[in-house]
Please model this.
Amino acid sequence: MGYNTIFELVVSDDIDKQELANKLFNILNTDDNGLPDDNERYVELAREQANSLVYDGEYYGRWYSYMNDMKKLSALYPSRWWLLTGTGDDSGSTWKAYFLNGKGHKYTDDEFVDWLVDKLHSTKNKLRDAYVRSNLT
Model:
């Protein structure tokens, strides 16, 4: 089972929304074998999801294949950055996933803060060492 998520989609540049909605629909409406789904209910859900994400900027529901789907979408627009944010309605947990040129990475806010603290600590040590070396007589 699972819980619903509020998905918010942002793209780095202006893009033709109708073209984007159609491409996203084609991705969402494809089964595991790469064939278009012909189940009327799923076709309608895929169209609604694509339109909600593109025209409204968000979609409320379940989207288990979002990482693979967004990688496929970003590969179609290789020069654009994509940000997909998810907020779970049960737990309130939030994550972000960035996509560029068919690749993606997902992280929570806590993971990002941990990464940033590590980078800042490493940079501080490097700067301190450079300062000490430059002031040696």
Observations:
- The helical segments are 17-28, 40-56, 66-76, 109-134.
- Residues 5-108 form one domain.
- The longest strand covers residues 5-11.
- Strands lie at 5-11, 58-61, 82-88, 94-100, 103-108.
